[in-house]
Amino acid sequence: MLAHVDSKASHSCVKLVGCPLGGGPLLIITGNCVKVPRNFRLLEELEEGQKGVGDGTVSWGLEDDEDMTLTRWRGMIIGPPRTIYENRMYSLKVECGPRYPEAPPFVRFVTKINLNGVHNSNGVVDTRAVSALAKWQNSYSIRVVLQELRRLMMCKENMKLPQPPEGQIYTN
Amino acid sequence: MEDNGGEDPVNNNNDTTVSSEGSIIKVTVKTPKDKEEIAISEDASVTQFKEEISRRFKAKQDQLVLIFAGKILKDGDSLNQHGIKDGLTVHLVIKTAHKAGDGASSSTSCTSQVGSSSGSSSGPSSAAHSSTVGSTGGPASAPPQTPNILTGFGDLSSLSSMGMGSANFMELQQQMQSQLMSNPEMLSQIMENPLVQNMMSNPDLMRQMIVANPQMQQLMERNPEISHMLNNPELMRQTMELARNPAMMQEMMRNQDRALSNLESIPGGYNALRRMYTDIQEPMFSAARDQFGNNPFSALGGNSDGGVQPSRTENREPLPNPWGPPSSTNPSEGGGGTGTTGSSTTGSTNPSVSNPLGVNSASLGNGMFSSPGMQSLMQQISENPQLMQNMLSAPYMRSMMQSLAQNPDMASQNPASSPSAGTNPAQQLMMQQMLQMFAGGNASSQTPEVQFQQQLEQLGAMGFINREANLQALIATGGDVNAAIERLLGSQPS
């Protein structure tokens, strides 16, 4: 499906030059860490999302199946029980930029939510409020971010915030 | 509504596994709780898929919400459209009829107990918030002097009493409390009620509720410690979390026990501990025991059947019966709440499980806790036994004591005015009477002399030679050595 492998590593260490046939991943070893190219990572995440890896409380997938850049994703968080978010489903948009997974993705809620760290006006998630985003590591993934947001819903300071009526979405 | 690849007119919605069009794919449907594999035609529509799912999961179709790859599957879509293929997983959420978020369900179970549906103010909890605040302000002052710290909490019932009239308001509260104490499940149920949690997570609100109680106000005036505790938002938050979470409460108490035993090592701390124990804890425990049948804190600690008992907790036994035979453990100390003079003979009692403080009644302490604050507290309590019982049932009483234990400085800051003569005979008498009343019919069958054998020995060792007088004093104080000493000394002009 994918012909182009993007490897934007700019480290001056040992590089494995040479592209295996068939467009497999080009691994570049820098020091002692292995950096997996972006698209490979995203494909993996796509597969995980379709296979339902995880506990079933979050879901994610490409917004548009034809999106070759694997940039725009959709996420879904099921509101945790015994909180005000229970029984609600929150839809999110996740954007994985070109520097993903080195750089964290942009996350915003589509479904209206009242949660600390989410802008009330447009649902954009404040990077500083979510530790997975603030202290992003390239081993993190979309799933991690979604699960972290779900955990935030279970925090004392959030679990009882009054919520807008179900089904409303941000329009901007 | 899209039909499935409709070349076969017979192929209607009853299609489950056989389809002449398209092949069967196996899709895993996963809920947070379980997982099922469902075979469905790959050309099927979401509706058909849901039908199958509703059969398998025994839920109504309109309760089902399907999510795949971060998108909700709408009834009009087809599986193909979303790219659902063989071996992939679809997430399922079954919307349950009652939402705990409204507080309706969990409150109905405690309706019978509380006499109101605490969530009866249905609708967003913020609205209930204000109505609760309003209602606690009102009826709290209306009912007669029931010094009930949990009045505010129990005033959840006043939500209904606004309509129902509060005829047996007191009984209701009493009932609720005793039931609460005896049934940790219900307690946790109530605690889980989002409305309650909402209330309790607001320290200001709780504080208001508590302060609104006139009895409490009186108490606060007399006892700066209490107002200190109430005014400290951090502490309030902590205690409310405690109250909310019985498991945490348990852990907290254990920590407290540990902290208290640490206090022992501080010079003078041991005595302070002992003082605190005899002054506060024992009468309370004995008081509560009578009402609740055993150590109420052990009940709070989830002592009941079937409760999950984490292995990390240790102390579950009720404290020893102070009014029982004196030989086994520490003999009864009525806790006269007085300062003492006389030498301090430090006994050594190893802290046992049932005696976490390692208190030895034989040791006399200095008057670290015999500040006027404490005394007036005792007086207050003695004047109104009900108050003690009810204070006891407040889960956060424990935290108050903890804060006191951790701040012996605070207590000692209060000018220690002649502690030894502090408690006048009237108070003393009242205290004894109250304690004896609590002891109820639990008088020992032994003669007082035998019963107070140990105390007599102590008094003798201290230099009170007059055995008769000692015995009298002990009887009067119900075995409290310190109080007896007071008495003995008080009989002489000081």
TrEMBL record, chain A:
<feature type="domain" description="UBC core">
    <location>
        <begin position="37"/>
        <end position="172"/>
    </location>
</feature>
<protein>
    <recommendedName>
        <fullName>UBC core domain-containing protein</fullName>
    </recommendedName>
</protein>
<dbReference type="Pfam" id="PF00179">
    <property type="entry name" value="UQ_con"/>
</dbReference>
<dbReference type="InterPro" id="IPR016135">
    <property type="entry name" value="UBQ-conjugating_enzyme/RWD"/>
</dbReference>
<keyword id="KW-0833">Ubl conjugation pathway</keyword>
<dbReference type="InterPro" id="IPR000608">
    <property type="entry name" value="UBC"/>
</dbReference>
Automatic annotation (TrEMBL), chain B:
<feature type="region of interest" description="Disordered">
    <location>
        <begin position="289"/>
        <end position="371"/>
    </location>
</feature>
<dbReference type="GO" id="GO:0006511">
    <property type="term" value="P:ubiquitin-dependent protein catabolic process"/>
</dbReference>
<dbReference type="GO" id="GO:0031593">
    <property type="term" value="F:polyubiquitin modification-dependent protein binding"/>
</dbReference>
<feature type="compositionally biased region" description="Polar residues">
    <location>
        <begin position="357"/>
        <end position="371"/>
    </location>
</feature>
<dbReference type="GO" id="GO:0005694">
    <property type="term" value="C:chromosome"/>
</dbReference>
<dbReference type="InterPro" id="IPR015496">
    <property type="entry name" value="Ubiquilin"/>
</dbReference>
<dbReference type="GO" id="GO:0048471">
    <property type="term" value="C:perinuclear region of cytoplasm"/>
</dbReference>
<keyword id="KW-0256">Endoplasmic reticulum</keyword>
<keyword id="KW-0234">DNA repair</keyword>
<dbReference type="GO" id="GO:0006281">
    <property type="term" value="P:DNA repair"/>
</dbReference>
<feature type="region of interest" description="Disordered">
    <location>
        <begin position="405"/>
        <end position="424"/>
    </location>
</feature>
<feature type="region of interest" description="Disordered">
    <location>
        <begin position="1"/>
        <end position="24"/>
    </location>
</feature>
<feature type="compositionally biased region" description="Low complexity">
    <location>
        <begin position="102"/>
        <end position="132"/>
    </location>
</feature>
<dbReference type="InterPro" id="IPR006636">
    <property type="entry name" value="STI1_HS-bd"/>
</dbReference>
<keyword id="KW-0832">Ubl conjugation</keyword>
<dbReference type="InterPro" id="IPR009060">
    <property type="entry name" value="UBA-like_sf"/>
</dbReference>
<dbReference type="InterPro" id="IPR000626">
    <property type="entry name" value="Ubiquitin-like_dom"/>
</dbReference>
<dbReference type="Pfam" id="PF00240">
    <property type="entry name" value="ubiquitin"/>
</dbReference>
<dbReference type="GO" id="GO:0005783">
    <property type="term" value="C:endoplasmic reticulum"/>
</dbReference>
<keyword id="KW-0158">Chromosome</keyword>
<keyword id="KW-0597">Phosphoprotein</keyword>
<dbReference type="GO" id="GO:0005829">
    <property type="term" value="C:cytosol"/>
</dbReference>
